[in-house]
Amino acid sequence: MTTFVLVHGSWHGPWCWERLIPELDRCGHRAVTPQLPSADPAASFADYADVVAAAVDDDDTVLVGHSLAGYLLPLVAQRRAVRHQVYLAALVAEPGLSFAEQQRRDGMLNPAYRGALRPVAGGTEWVDRDLARELLFSDCDEPTVAAAFGRLSGQANHPLRQPAADAEPPAVPTTYLVCTEDRMLDPSWSRRVAERRLGVRAVELAGGHSPFYSRPEALAAVLVGLI
């Protein structure tokens, strides 16, 4: 039995994995879903990584990071031994650049997302449901969109403005899953950065930015196939 540590991205929480967990369970594996301190205006990505590392309780672990959680994968692998790491429609840190600087340079995220946010206590929260449907949940049905949108929470700005560590990622077997119809994170950027920064060819997964909701069975099959 392998443990999948599933790490949520910005504005999300462990709830977003609720459809994937039963699929992994049916395959004989277990899932752990840490809650990141995303809304804490003082927390850094190193603090986020400490939370995730504390959830890694054995060496037979596959670490899965969605979206912004891609920034955490090398930090966690420096703290704990993992069997495999998976970037799921995820950002890949550029050493020496903050997320904000990388976004200005590369434009990897659809700039329309900024119009969906409002400032709150040192961060942002998502307030535009139509843009959430368009960018985050484009291939999900309306009840799923409504339920997910109602649970989105704040994301602090502090870690997004801190330079990424100027160090090579640990030598951990790595897979990048690019969602081919992703409207939030540019799939062509994902393919390029997977080769340039991670040294791997991206694995293609049909659908939008949130496959854990729109196609959990297919996502589970890919993840289990890695082991």
Automatic annotation (TrEMBL):
<protein>
    <recommendedName>
        <fullName>AB hydrolase-1 domain-containing protein</fullName>
    </recommendedName>
</protein>
<feature type="domain" description="AB hydrolase-1">
    <location>
        <begin position="4"/>
        <end position="222"/>
    </location>
</feature>
<dbReference type="InterPro" id="IPR052897">
    <property type="entry name" value="Sec-Metab_Biosynth_Hydrolase"/>
</dbReference>
<dbReference type="InterPro" id="IPR029058">
    <property type="entry name" value="AB_hydrolase_fold"/>
</dbReference>
<dbReference type="GO" id="GO:0003824">
    <property type="term" value="F:catalytic activity"/>
</dbReference>
<dbReference type="InterPro" id="IPR000073">
    <property type="entry name" value="AB_hydrolase_1"/>
</dbReference>
<dbReference type="Pfam" id="PF12697">
    <property type="entry name" value="Abhydrolase_6"/>
</dbReference>
